[in-house]
Amino acid sequence: FIDPAWGFAIGWNYGIQWLVVFPLELVAASMTIQYWNKEINAAAWVAIFWSAIMVINLFGVKGYGEAEFIFSFIKVIAVIGFIIFGIVINCGGGPQGGYIGGTYWYTPGAFNHGFKGLCSVFVTGAFSFSGTEIVGLAAAETSNPRKTMPAAIKQVFWRIVIFYLTSLIIVGLIVPYTDDQLFSTTGSIGASPFVIAIRNAGVKGLPSVMNAVVLIAVLSVGNSAVYGCSRTISALAAQGHAPKFLGYIDRQGRPIFGIMLSGVVGLLCFVAASEKEPEVFAWLMALTGLSTIFTWGSICFCHIRFRAAMKLQGRSEREIVYKSQVGLIGSYFGVIFNFLVLVAQFWTGLFPVGSSKADVTSFFQAYLAAPIVLACFLFFKIWKKTKFVSLKDMDLDTGRREVDTEAIMAEIAEEQAYIRSKNFFYRTWKFWC
């Protein structure tokens, strides 16, 4: 929908992102394990985790789905419990007592290092949000995306609002950023803010339970990384953007060579046994954080151009069987803010927080994905001599499933009539969930 060269660049950007996330999360898992025992060689743990995730993905989409269902159930229960726990602690109900309220938002204060400090964590936040777009990859393998996609997308929204934003607010209320147990050069490498919050409250035993949940969450991301990477690499091969053998899909629908490639690159996780583990972790993070911004911005821009092409070519919006509530406005919003994040990251990467001088190492750790995307784009542009796709020439049909638009419209009308016949609470539930 933009330019074949840009499609090549973003496709490989996304594939590389998930290729790197797998070993990154395995290293993070080994760091989390160190909360309990720093004596056991980290290589033993990453070998176990690597093997478990590879076995899960060899069971195909069913194995991935079942594993993620279990992981998600544990995470949801834990986060809900933590939110309740945090509210109780904040109100002075913990073993140590004492009302906290918004004290830490005044002393030491919110927004450490001001606006520049806020800008410096945008990409870290984006990395934490990355993976939400996997809903689109998984939907392609379902029997009825029209019904599964809306429900899945709405669940993603509520998971972000309730389980991500709310839990972070609670952490910010009960753990000051000056706590020396946080990740830093002087703090424990295995300390999670969630674990610190519980430990500071003086509740014995519970910090280990929460650390186990953090470990499960990290492994869940690693599991999603193998799934996302294998499907992306397979799609690239199908389009001629990667070696053809990587596009092989067996009778069970598994992109075997894509999974194997993820596993091979995942062996980088054994750097966890190296003394350079924190440094390697930082560079792996550099490859993944900004990649998400390029991916999201491109998705939004593609949607804008897709809808513009439909209008120019006289295609009816009735052909779109699902439209989100925010529609085009959401995509424009996404393009603008992803661009602003790129600008902010360039600024804070070149001139990091606490420094007025340019720092080359810091810049490449913050902006490493950008030259990779640019190099892929220029390589394909020069090689294939591609041109920017005009709206009138845009192909809106390739890749679509064969559907009977009229039959689907009749089905949707019947469903909407059924929803309208129900009470207010049911209608509200269906709208939001």
From TrEMBL:
<feature type="transmembrane region" description="Helical">
    <location>
        <begin position="69"/>
        <end position="89"/>
    </location>
</feature>
<dbReference type="InterPro" id="IPR050524">
    <property type="entry name" value="APC_YAT"/>
</dbReference>
<feature type="transmembrane region" description="Helical">
    <location>
        <begin position="280"/>
        <end position="306"/>
    </location>
</feature>
<feature type="transmembrane region" description="Helical">
    <location>
        <begin position="16"/>
        <end position="36"/>
    </location>
</feature>
<feature type="transmembrane region" description="Helical">
    <location>
        <begin position="326"/>
        <end position="348"/>
    </location>
</feature>
<dbReference type="InterPro" id="IPR004841">
    <property type="entry name" value="AA-permease/SLC12A_dom"/>
</dbReference>
<keyword id="KW-0812">Transmembrane</keyword>
<dbReference type="GO" id="GO:0015171">
    <property type="term" value="F:amino acid transmembrane transporter activity"/>
</dbReference>
<keyword id="KW-0029">Amino-acid transport</keyword>
<keyword id="KW-1133">Transmembrane helix</keyword>
<dbReference type="GO" id="GO:0016020">
    <property type="term" value="C:membrane"/>
</dbReference>
<feature type="domain" description="Amino acid permease/ SLC12A">
    <location>
        <begin position="1"/>
        <end position="389"/>
    </location>
</feature>
<feature type="transmembrane region" description="Helical">
    <location>
        <begin position="360"/>
        <end position="380"/>
    </location>
</feature>
<keyword id="KW-0472">Membrane</keyword>
<comment type="similarity">
    <text>Belongs to the amino acid-polyamine-organocation (APC) superfamily. YAT (TC 2.A.3.10) family.</text>
</comment>
<feature type="transmembrane region" description="Helical">
    <location>
        <begin position="43"/>
        <end position="63"/>
    </location>
</feature>
<feature type="transmembrane region" description="Helical">
    <location>
        <begin position="256"/>
        <end position="274"/>
    </location>
</feature>
<keyword id="KW-0813">Transport</keyword>
<feature type="transmembrane region" description="Helical">
    <location>
        <begin position="156"/>
        <end position="177"/>
    </location>
</feature>
<feature type="transmembrane region" description="Helical">
    <location>
        <begin position="209"/>
        <end position="229"/>
    </location>
</feature>
<protein>
    <recommendedName>
        <fullName>Amino acid permease/ SLC12A domain-containing protein</fullName>
    </recommendedName>
</protein>
<dbReference type="Pfam" id="PF00324">
    <property type="entry name" value="AA_permease"/>
</dbReference>
